[in-house]
Design a protein that fits this description.
Layout: H1 15-25, E1 35-37, H2 38-47, H3 58-68, E2 75-77, H4 78-92, H5 98-109, H6 127-132, H7 140-143, H8 155-158, H9 177-180
Antiparallel strand pairs: 1-2
Helix pairs in contact: 1-2, 2-3, 3-4, 4-5
Keywords: Cytoplasm
GO molecular function: tubulin binding
InterPro entries: EF-hand-dom_pair (IPR011992), TPP/p25 (IPR008907)
Amino acid sequence: NDGGVGAKTPVEITALEESFRRFAIHGDTRATGKDMNGKNWSKLCKDCGVIDGKGITLTDVDIVFSKVKSKSARTITYSQFKEALAELARKRFKDKSSEDAAQEVYRMIEGKSPVISGVTVKAVASPTVSRLTDTTKFTGSHKERFDKTGRGKGKAGRVEVVDASGYVSGYKHAGSYEKKVSKPPQKPM
């Protein structure tokens, strides 16, 4: 707004500028959307298909970014952004006039938003992980930590639980003494 006198007209944001702003603030909570860093510029070019791997590569995109930005700046403004796109457009659409080529590239970007990847990726059970986590194959002291169903026993499986029964630890027939020592047969009187 001109902050001013008379009827206020809303500033018209083009679809291209809208996309510029979306990419400019991508991944940066403090970004205002008025300028764009190199990382987001590369992402925009990649997500919108400006980089085709033939006429335009990631390197070209980086070179153009460095060329249009101000010497000490780390970001580009919207006007520098359009300048950079026009530069890439000439490379991408060699057979078109500069103006047509630029329009062609603008159309690729208009209305687009950053593609957020890797958000809904499900954990893939690899055979290695399932082999390592199969408790039935555990040996030694580790197998003591799980019951027959493969559930952990918690503290009982890890900590030496004091056995006050009087038997030597590891004695297989614990608790069978009373059964073995039966009363001697009574002789009838």
